[in-house]
From TrEMBL:
Domain TACO1/YebC-like second and third: 79-235
HAMAP family in the record: Transcrip_reg_TACO1
Single GO molecular function: DNA binding
GO biological process per UniProt: regulation of DNA-templated transcription
This protein's record includes keyword Transcription: yes
Organism: Staphylococcus arlettae
This protein's name: Probable transcriptional regulatory protein NCTC12413_02204
A GO CC term assigned to this protein in UniProt: cytosol
Family, per entry: Belongs to the TACO1 family.
Any single Pfam family the record assigns to this protein: Transcrip_reg
């Protein structure tokens, strides 16, 4: 699990350098979640989970409130969730999740980003089978043994609990996100450094220095796209 955590940590560090981009993407995601049901996290679990994730990126309240108010006002924008799969240099694999109001634009932009940066698009299913959809939580101030014992006492099953430096990382089934997070809060976890859905590779690969430079350019080009919400990959950074 340690190498998987390294990829998550690196991705979060990169995202934290681009706060305005992250805020814009969460604004869109919060709007979609709020519009999908009641614009109240107490009755809309999808919205609640999105807001919990937004907290780990310190998304400002005014962005959250603006997105929810837009949904309350019956905003006319409709978005589709799309997933693209592709390949980078030397066997690297990527999954690109997008939220878009223009499917043709997004497909063209993603294809161009792959083509201009040493990659190529794959067909649906060509990459995803090598990844596992996972809920991931990271926090400090606890030990893995104490957390695992506490979760077992609450009859909460998780995939794994690991210590990585000062962090405890909990890997769980994605449909158990809310249940596991509530259980962790009951165990005294007050602040989550990570509370995310991830596509974790079943195995990582290492690239040569030249291939890694090209790969990082590809990831950056994809993440810079307005409609792209997440990029997952199998490269050990």
């Amino acid at each position: 699990m340690g190498r998987k955590w390294n990829n998550i940590k690196e991705k979060k560090a990169q995202k934290d350098k681009n706060t305005s981009r992250i805020y814009a993407k969460f604004g869109k995601e919060i709007y979609v979640a709020a519009k999908s049901g009641e614009p109240d996290p107490e009755s809309n679990q999808n919205l609640r989970l999105t807001l919990e994730r937004a907290k780990t990126y310190s998304v400002p309240n005014h962005i959250i409130e603006k997105a929810i108010e837009k949904a309350k006002g019956a905003g006319e924008e409709n978005y589709d969730h799309l997933r693209y799969e592709g390949f980078g240099p030397n066997g690297s694999m990527l999954i690109v999740d997008a939220l878009t109001n223009n499917v043709n634009r997004t497909a063209s932009d993603v294809r161009a980003a792959f083509g201009k940066n040493g990659g190529n698009m794959g067909v649906s299913g060509s990459v995803a089978y090598m990844f596992e959809h996972t809920a991931v939580f990271g926090f400090e101030g606890h030990t893995a043994d104490d957390i695992l014992e506490g979760l077992m006492e609450q009859d909460i099953d998780v995939r794994d609990v690991q210590e990585e430096g000062d962090m405890v990382i909990v890997y769980a089934e994605p449909d158990q996100f809310a249940q596991v997070q509530d259980a962790l809060k009951a165990l005294g976890v007050t602040t989550f450094t990570i509370a995310e859905f991830e596509m974790l590779p079943q195995s990582d690969i290492a690239l040569s220095s030249d291939d890694q430079v090209e790969f990082e350019k590809l990831v950056e080009a994809l993440e810079d796209l307005e409609d792209v919400q997440n990029v997952f990959h199998n490269v050990d950074l």
